[in-house]
């Protein structure tokens, strides 16, 4: 009892992290799985990512949001969403996406609970993981959970990175990654949604990670080789082609790649078009600037992630990278020693 009391007193006495000062530039921002909304009404860019206590001064699990008028100088982030106490989820807050739908703003973000077991895949103990939905009147929140925070996809499936797609008939869908932890070879799947953004049917298989010629399997301690699927986002090209951004691992680490539906619908079949950005870069998304430029933001590297902005070109049948916008995101390859020392960089700082 005394030990518990002492621990509680120490915890209470521990100072809160100091929030980052503004204005910020991307080389000073934690940006794993970044998502940008270009809000035309306020001509403001809102950048969402999981909450980091070192940036907000808040230790709570949730989503933080930065704001900018020029994509270069950003406000100190604030909490847009906080996971309520007592929910099934205990960790995560990954890959936030924010979309306007039926007059409201909706946040999709992934949580998990390692203690909520789902059974074994070989020697791996699977557990509950899925994308939840929250709603707000303003793009920057505050967001409140919908349907008690239950995952959109069947909770028996270990899924992540749910992404909203609205088809040409106005029907909403959720595209997502079915986690390799449960499937060994990760897949991209989709479920139809109701107008309330609840699942309206069973999952539909789109493709497997190892269908991409560039994808490299990751050897696991138990001896098997797994293939990762991450971060799907759908995009309709200027000629009507249905394209998808997604990520996995290649010969030089994490990769941002694209695929194309041969039928122009989610049903596919899907053909892999190759990589867009390599060298520990991935989980990208597309947006348009207020002057009409098509842009992509992704994070690099996977650990100690920083945001990287690319000017893109819509070629009709695919997307192409024009250039990295280094005048906005800072150095093309970060020189922080713990980033530069990552295995796909120069290896000069192996102790990081």
From TrEMBL:
Family: Belongs to the glycosyl hydrolase 43 family.
Secretion signal span: 1-19
Protein name (Swiss-Prot/TrEMBL): Glycoside hydrolase
A Pfam family reported for this protein in Swiss-Prot or TrEMBL: Glyco_hydro_43
Residue numbers marked as site, Important for catalytic activity, responsible for pKa modulation of the active site Glu and correct orientation of both the proton donor and substrate: 161
Pathway the protein takes part in: Glycan metabolism; L-arabinan degradation
UniProt entry keywords in alphabetical sequence: Glycosidase, Hydrolase, Signal
Transcription listed as a keyword: no
Source species: Sphingomonas aracearum
One example GO MF annotation: hydrolase activity, hydrolyzing O-glycosyl compounds
GO biological process: carbohydrate metabolic process
Alphabetical list of CDD domains matching this protein: GH43_Bt1873-like
């Amino acid at each position: 009892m005394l030990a518990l009391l002492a621990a509680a007193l120490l915890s209470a006495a521990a100072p809160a992290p100091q929030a980052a000062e503004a204005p910020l530039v991307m080389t000073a921002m934690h940006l794993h799985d970044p998502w940008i909304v270009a809000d035309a009404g306020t001509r403001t860019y809102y950048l969402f990512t999981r909450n980091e206590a070192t940036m907000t001064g808040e230790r709570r699990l949730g989503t933080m949001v930065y704001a900018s008028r020029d994509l270069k100088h950003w406000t100190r982030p604030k909490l847009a969403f906080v996971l309520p106490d007592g929910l099934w989820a205990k960790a995560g807050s990954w890959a936030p996406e924010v979309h306007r739908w039926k007059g409201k703003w909706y946040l999709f973000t992934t949580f998990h609970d390692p203690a909520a077991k789902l059974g074994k895949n070989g020697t791996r103990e699977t557990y509950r993981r899925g994308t939840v939905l929250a709603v707000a009147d303003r793009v920057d929140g505050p967001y409140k959970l919908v349907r008690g925070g239950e995952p959109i996809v069947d909770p028996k499936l270990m899924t992540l990175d749910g992404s909203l797609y609205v088809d040409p008939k106005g029907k909403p869908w959720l595209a997502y990654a079915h986690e390799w932890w449960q499937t060994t070879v990760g897949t991209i799947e989709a479920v139809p949604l109701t107008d309330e953004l609840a699942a309206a049917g069973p999952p539909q298989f789109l493709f497997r990670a190892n269908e991409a010629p560039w994808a490299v399997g990751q050897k696991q301690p138990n001896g098997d080789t797994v293939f990762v699927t991450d971060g799907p986002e759908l995009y309709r090209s200027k000629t009507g082609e249905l394209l998808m951004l997604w990520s996995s691992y290649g010969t030089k680490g994490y990769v941002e790649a694209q695929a194309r539906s041969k039928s122009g619908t989610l049903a596919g079949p899907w053909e892999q078009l190759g990589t867009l950005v390599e060298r520990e870069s991935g989980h990208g998304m597309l947006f348009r600037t207020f002057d009409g430029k098509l842009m992509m933001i992704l994070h690099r590297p996977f650990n100690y992630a920083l945001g990287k902005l690319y000017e893109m070109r819509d070629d009709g049948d695919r997307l192409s990278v024009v250039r990295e916008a280094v005048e906005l995101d800072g150095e093309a390859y970060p020189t922080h020693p713990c980033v530069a020392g990552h295995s796909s960089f120069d290896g000069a700082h192996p102790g990081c």
